[in-house]
Design goal:
Number of helices: 2
Strand content: 35-45%
Order of helices and strands: EEEEEEEEHEH
Strand order of the largest sheet: 2-3-4-5-6
Shape: globular
Distance between the termini: 17 Å
Helix content: 10-25%
């Protein structure tokens, strides 16, 4: 399995909560196109038979439920680690979201924590493999 994480240079960030259906949507996209090719969408709500958190990466064909084992913060990068099954499916260990300076890190990390239901470890205390350049 390749060691390189799939990069997304975030130009668009969106987080919203639909109170009628109790669904949180968190989206990251590269470029400013209204229909981007390189993106991540997370939608979470009450767990059902499919899972708790739906994800889509670049295309509906690259979607599923509960595909992330954890995440960490490395400067202005969010490192999302796939579960073993997703890492094998996508032939990479996860995603690296490079955040622009105008996106508030606290807002992004709070949205991720709520969407994924996973708290990031304190800086420097994660046991994930190192990020390759």
């Amino acid at each position: 399995m390749p060691d390189a994480f799939h990069p997304i240079r975030v130009d668009q960030f969106h987080a919203s909560h639909d109170s009628d259906e109790d669904i949180l949507t968190v989206a990251f996209a590269e470029g400013n196109d209204p229909d981007p090719e390189n993106y991540l969408i997370l939608e979470s709500g009450e767990p059902d038979e499919l899972g708790r958190c739906y994800f889509e990466i670049g295309d509906r064909a690259n979607s599923g439920y509960d595909g992330f084992a954890g995440w960490s913060l490395a400067g202005r990068q969010i490192v999302l680690h796939f579960t073993a099954a997703c890492a094998q499916r996508f032939t990479c260990p996860g995603l690296v979201l490079a955040l622009p300076d105008d996106v508030e890190i606290a807002t992004v990390t709070a949205a991720l924590q709520q969407a994924l239901g996973i708290t990031a470890p304190p800086l420097g205390q994660h046991t994930w493999p190192p990020i390759l350049p």
